[in-house]
Hints:
This protein is mainly alpha-helical. The protein has eight helices and no strands. It has one domain (3-157): Up-down Bundle (Butyryl-CoA Dehydrogenase, subunit A, domain 3), CATH 1.20.140. It has helices spanning 3-24, 29-45, 56-74, 82-85, 101-108, 112-123, 128-135, 139-157. Helix 1 crosses helix 6. The longest helix is centred in the first third of the chain and has 22 residues, at 3-24.
Amino acid sequence: MTRERFIEYVRTEQEPLRRFLLALCNGNAALADDLAQDALIRAYVASGSFLGLSKFSTWLLRIAYNCYMDHCRRSHPDQVPLEQALDVPSLDATDASFRYEGLYQALERLPGNEKAAIALFYFEDRSIKEIATILDMPQGTVKYHLSMGRNHLKQLIQ
C-alpha cells in the first residue's frame, strides 16, 4: 500500500476510529486520542501487510482494539472524572453537558467485550461478521456479547 493510499483510507476512517475508542474509554477524549494515534502508527508500520482480505476499516479497528486491550493490560482502565465524560460534543449547546452522561456511565460498567461489541454495532454500524473479525471471536460469541450488553445497559440506564 502506498503512503498516499494509506492517508486516503485514514482520512475516511479517522472519525469512526475516534468514536469507537471514545466509547471504549468511557468518554476520556485524551486517552481515546492517544490510543487512536498509537493505532494509526501501528497501522502505518504494518500497512505493507494489509492484503485487502477485509475492509481497511475492519483492519484498522482491530488494531485500535488491540491498542485498547494493551492499555488495559498495562494499567487498570482510567476512571474518567464525570466532568470529562460530560465533555462530549453535542449539536444542541443547551444540553451538551448532559446528553451522553448516562450512556457513558452505563458503558463504563460493562465488561470489555460487551462494551466493544455495543460500540461497534450501535455507534459504528458494523455487521456481526465485521465485529467478529475486529474482536477476534466467533460470530455467535459476538451475538452473545451484544445480547448481554443490551440487557446490562437496559438495567443500568433504568
